[in-house]
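Dear Dr. H.,

I hope your travels went smoothly. While you were away I took the liberty of generating a structure for the chain from your last submission, since the lab meeting agenda had it listed for discussion. I wanted you to have the full record in hand beforehand rather than looking at slides cold. The sequence, exactly as received, is reproduced here:
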Amino acid sequence: NNRPTDELSVISSSARAAWQELSFIERLSANHYKIREGFVPNMRVPGIVYVNDQLDGLLFDELKAAVERGNSGGFLPAVKQIANVAALPGVVSHSVAMPDVHSGYGFCIGNVAAMDMGDPEAVVSPGGVGFDINCGVRLLRTNLVEEDVLPVQELLAQTLFDHIPVGVGSQGILPTTKEDLEEVLELGMDWSLREGYSWPEDKEHCEEFGRMLNADPSKVSARAKKRGLPQLGTLGAGNHYAEIQVVDEIYDEAAAVKMGIERVGQGGV
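The corresponding predicted structure, in token form, is as follows:
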């Protein structure tokens, strides 16, 4: 059986077999698992994972593979990362993993945790804020439907790849300077509007209308600015991507209208 059983056992050994590791994970329902405290040292709260039948096998096979290689080399298994987040000072209630869960840096991808800011020992984890859960998602709606895209999908995908700078070492095509970067950090979308890279109505669909009024670029280190300047105007590197999707089903018509989604089969990027 590739899945953990509902029987839990307390095991203190630092070098556990796969079945012993899995004994800390309880299946609460068809798509809902709980990682017991004790799975890694100093857990303050349990871990919670939401996955389906296809993903849970990948998740637990990853753990078993890590045990077989002696828990050395490569990324920590996602379930271990979830448990490590549950050990952070100030963590509240649970360390939760969404259905897109997979190994990341510190936090696994899809890992969410809340911290009690009234706790003087609570932390703000760069691994949670900067690497994984703060990338954001943007939808560019189109007037195209699936039938328009299917005949040219390969050409369209290649054209997007050719025109959107992406990946380690890529640079944006916008002629930007250090001074431009300072203005971008302070003005946000108002900068792109001023330079002609966006429309006024774009701001209506962005958080805080595309600009944080209290943004202070002086709080950003010179090293971070140096690394970020060449990437301005790119898709970035790592777990970032642009993809063409088709609306399969509309669950909330009011929300769909706000996003410009009008019908099933409509395309977006």
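Two observations you may find useful: Strands lie at 25-29, 32-35, 47-50, 91-102, 109-115, 141-145, 245-246, 266-268. The mean pLDDT is 84.

With kind regards,
E. W.
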